[in-house]
């Protein structure tokens, strides 16, 4: 028996018709009725689960992406797509304000969105006002959005950031964010477990977020400040991984490391900027819970002290001078029985001596069914 109208055709028939349609006709097909739109999503939606809206994305791609909005779980938006400086290139969005408006309406309907990245990595010329804020306003009610990344080379408005409620992983790699905005965001996202802030993104006000980050386990940041500004971070009750990058004042981490040693819950520590002083190193090696460590040293004495971290599994070491640290590393190899990776990113070493020592330790490891040590030396 034939179907009374095309909407009642069997899916096999629709599939047969669909194969003969051009991309433009498929878009029109999806706009006929709810069933045709769902059929379009079933056929094309999988390619938009993880989508990148880049500067070269076409209008047709954007329309198809918007049609399949419920399927999107991960989205990256490159705001250069809306750059209207077309005199130097032959790509970009012509009607940027209209397209951006459509994008924001689409974002509000992405009920499955879990991961959102918004980036502006070039100087942007566009009539769109506060694009980051408009995007944040559009996604503020999405229940599954757990991970948000914001990248910008220029100052940008993030006033609506605090309206999000379900974030667990937050990256804010922008030149500057008002301290009150960051505090409100941490307060409104009680399940935040990972926070990554760009260098100098927050100036000496990081202590203010501590009362609202009871579930924070991973913190990555960089800011040059007095030791008193770093110390409150030790009060984070669930902190497991701490990473610092960029310039810092010599000796400024001593109080923080001392407080972290008293709690002994940190498993990952990275201090990628500024060599550790002897006093800082003496406090660092008291953190016996450490499994992964990355740091700069300025003397063989500091390197030898790291051998006290007997539970280390990975050590990435950089030297700020040309001293040979081979003998000091032998002490670490002999003392850290769980060591799996020893990486010398910057430093003078005798690889033959280290290879012999590691070969001996690996032989012992084979007898005890332990993982062998891997040596990596950057040249």
UniProtKB/TrEMBL annotation:
<feature type="domain" description="F-box">
    <location>
        <begin position="3"/>
        <end position="51"/>
    </location>
</feature>
<dbReference type="InterPro" id="IPR032675">
    <property type="entry name" value="LRR_dom_sf"/>
</dbReference>
<dbReference type="InterPro" id="IPR036047">
    <property type="entry name" value="F-box-like_dom_sf"/>
</dbReference>
<dbReference type="InterPro" id="IPR001810">
    <property type="entry name" value="F-box_dom"/>
</dbReference>
<protein>
    <recommendedName>
        <fullName>F-box domain-containing protein</fullName>
    </recommendedName>
</protein>
<dbReference type="Pfam" id="PF00646">
    <property type="entry name" value="F-box"/>
</dbReference>
């Amino acid at each position: 028996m034939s179907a009374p109208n095309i909407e009642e055709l069997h899916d096999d028939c629709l599939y047969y018709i669909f194969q003969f349609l051009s991309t433009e006709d498929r878009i029109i097909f999806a706009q006929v009725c709810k069933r045709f739109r769902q059929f379009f999503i079933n056929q094309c939606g999988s390619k938009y689960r993880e989508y990148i809206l880049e500067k070269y994305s076409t209008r047709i791609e954007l329309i198809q992406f918007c049609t399949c909005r419920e399927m999107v779980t991960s989205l990256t938006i490159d705001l250069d797509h809306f750059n209207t400086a077309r005199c130097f290139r032959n790509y970009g969005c012509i009607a940027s304000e209209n397209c951006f408006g459509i994008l924001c309406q689409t974002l509000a309907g992405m009920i499955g969105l879990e991961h959102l990245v918004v980036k502006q990595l070039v100087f942007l010329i566009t009539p769109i006002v506060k694009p980051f804020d408009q995007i944040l306003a559009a996604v503020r009610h999405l229940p599954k959005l757990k991970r948000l990344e914001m990248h910008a080379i220029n100052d940008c408005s993030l006033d609506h950031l605090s309206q999000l409620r379900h974030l667990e992983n937050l990256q804010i790699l922008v030149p500057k964010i008002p301290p009150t905005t960051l505090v409100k965001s941490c307060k409104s996202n009680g399940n935040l477990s990972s926070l990554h802030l760009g260098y100098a993104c927050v100036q000496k006000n990081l202590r203010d977020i501590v009362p609202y980050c009871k579930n924070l386990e991973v913190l990555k940041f960089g800011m040059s400040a007095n030791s008193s500004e770093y110390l409150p971070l030790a009060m984070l009750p669930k902190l497991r991984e701490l990473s610092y990058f960029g310039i810092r004042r010599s000796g400024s981490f001593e109080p923080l490391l001392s407080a972290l040693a008293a709690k002994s819950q940190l498993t990952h520590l990275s201090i990628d900027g500024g060599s550790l002083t002897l006093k800082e190193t003496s406090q660092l090696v008291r953190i016996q819970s450490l499994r992964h460590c990355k740091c700069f040293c300025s003397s063989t004495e500091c390197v030898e002290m790291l051998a006290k971290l007997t539970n280390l599994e990975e050590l990435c070491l950089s030297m700020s001078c040309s001293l040979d640290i081979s003998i000091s590393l032998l002490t670490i190899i002999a003392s850290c029985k769980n060591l799996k990776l020893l990486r010398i990113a910057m430093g003078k070493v005798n690889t033959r001596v280290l290879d012999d020592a590691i070969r001996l330790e690996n032989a012992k490891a084979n007898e005890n069914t332990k993982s062998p040590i891997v040596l990596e030396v950057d040249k």
